Amino acid sequence: MTEATSVKKGPTRAYVLHPDRGSGSARHAPELALEEAVALAAALPDLEVVGAEVVRLPKITPATLFGSGKVAELAARFEAAGVDLVLVDGPVGPVQQRNLEKDWGVKLLDRTGLILEIFADRARTREGVLQVELAALSYQRTRLVRAWTHLERQRGGLGFVGGPGETQIEADRRAIDEEVVKIRRQLAKVVKTRELHRAARRKVPFPVVALVGYTNAGKSTLFNRMTGAEVLAKDMLFATLDPTMRGVVLPSGRKVILSDTVGFISDLPTQLVAAFRATLEEVLEADLILHVRDIAHPETEEQAADVGDILESLGVDEDVPIFEVWNKIDLLSPDTRAALLVQDARTPGIHAVSALTGEGIGALLAAMGQALDAERVAAEVFVPFSDGRRRAWLHEAGVVTDERPEEDGFRLSLLWTARQKAAFEAL
User: Fold this and answer.
1) What whole-number distance in Å separates Cα of residue 416 and Cα of residue 50?
2) Mean pLDDT on 290-301
3) Mean pLDDT of the 116-121 span
4) How confident is the model at residue 78 (pLDDT cuts 50, 70, 90)?
5) 3-state secondary structure of 17
6) Starting at the edge strand that comes first in sequence, how are the strands of the sheet with 47-56 ordered?
7) Strands (DSSP E) found in 296-407
8) Collapsing DSSP states into helix, strand and coil, what is residue 182?
9) Is the pLDDT of residue 60 over 60?
10) Among candidates 287, 190, 285, which has minimal Cα distance to 242?
11) Closest CA to 137 of 88, 186, 202, 83
């Protein structure tokens, strides 16, 4: 992060503002958007939120975002509350940020900066750290603004070249570009390793099921419930960042690989979507997608629409089946819950569950097996006696329905999926 946007170490008193432009085009209600912004702030360690409010914004002031009267009013409020950091839940231009920090005497982070801070704090794997660094540098590059003559300061060229030389801001931008190239090079190696792992998984006959959903929808809790794993699961936005994969045996006896991915959120910074594309590509490889929704949240429909937008931007194949998993039914009133279970029973592809109590998980696992088995087609292959490895692979995959020895090998009747066929041919 730049010096102007880094969160200071130690306990920090923060104030959250949600600018409400009042256009009526926003997908989320201002009060609920503010609530989410406060939850985002709470996801950062050593941060104490001392106040939060929705600020009506009839028109945007180019220099300071808010009108001069509001800026002065907030300055007095921040001073009285001893605020160190202001979090603005929305985009703030670099010039606006500089002016507001000067007027208020505090550090300021906009929504993108805040989410980047959270990701930087949570990233654990080498890939995750590199992806966050890349996203942060891309964000920094657009915010190279100085408050004083620093912008005009120039580095002189060599004597015989002449000319004005290079401005400091150009030097800063060039330094960032060089760092971006270096990180992309390192990330390419990590991504290559991930692709090798992915290619190896394609040769394994087990289908991949990806969990996606709005952050804090309960994906990790569901993942733990289905796999018996112990992935970090907290009532906190972006509790987990790095993708986790585990094997699950379905009631039919079929084994699948379950993948838990990073949670989505409204207005997810484009830098992060681009940087985390390699991780999110796990979703593109999936044979089945489980879209986990917090059905007890008042804006569950709006959250689902946000997730749909991101899946579309990733280019998820329309042929990949998607189950909607309506999670947290344990938080609903008895009447709402009863109506939901009726809708679940009548609507294909919808499954009401409670990852916390385990209710509905058995039915979900059974439905996953049916969805994956439904794609199987009959086929026949010949395997020579010398190719015992491929024959063993077919039996391990559980796709052999009949086997007949012939003069030079075995004739096998199969019932398999397109994925299993591709995996077999890749052997």
Assistant:
1) 59
2) 94
3) 82
4) very high
5) strand
6) 47-56, 12-20, 85-88, 107-110
7) 322-327, 350-352, 377-384, 400-405
8) helix
9) yes
10) 190
11) 186
Q: At which residue do the structure tokens 């395997």 appear?
A: 383
Q: Count the neighbouring beta carbons within 10 Å of the beta carbon of residue 1.
A: 16
| Residue closest to 395 by CA, chosen among 375, 377, 381 | 381
**Hey, what are 215's tokens?**
């952050």
Classify burial at 223, counting beta carbons within 10 Å of its beta carbon; exposed 0-12, middle 13-18, buried 19 or more. Answer: buried
**β-bridge partners, 263:** none
Q: Map tokens 């397109």 to a residue.
A: 418
Report whether 294 contacts 327 (CB < 8 A).
yes
C-alpha 53, offset from chain centre: 27
* CB contact burial 390-418 (16+ within 10 A = b; e otherwise): bbebbeebebbeeeeeeeebbebebebbe
Q: Give the residue among 69, 105, 64, 77 at the shortest CA–CA distance from 16.
A: 77
- H or E element that contains 116: helix 111-122
- Name which of 288, 320, 294, 321 is nearest 307 in CA terms: 294
Q: How many whole angstroms separate alpha carbon 74 and alpha carbon 372? A: 56
- The H-assigned helical ranges of 203-228 are 219-227
Amino acid occupying residue 133 = E
Task: Give residue 143's identity as a one-letter amino acid code.
Answer: R
Contact of 4 with 77, CB cutoff 8 Å: no
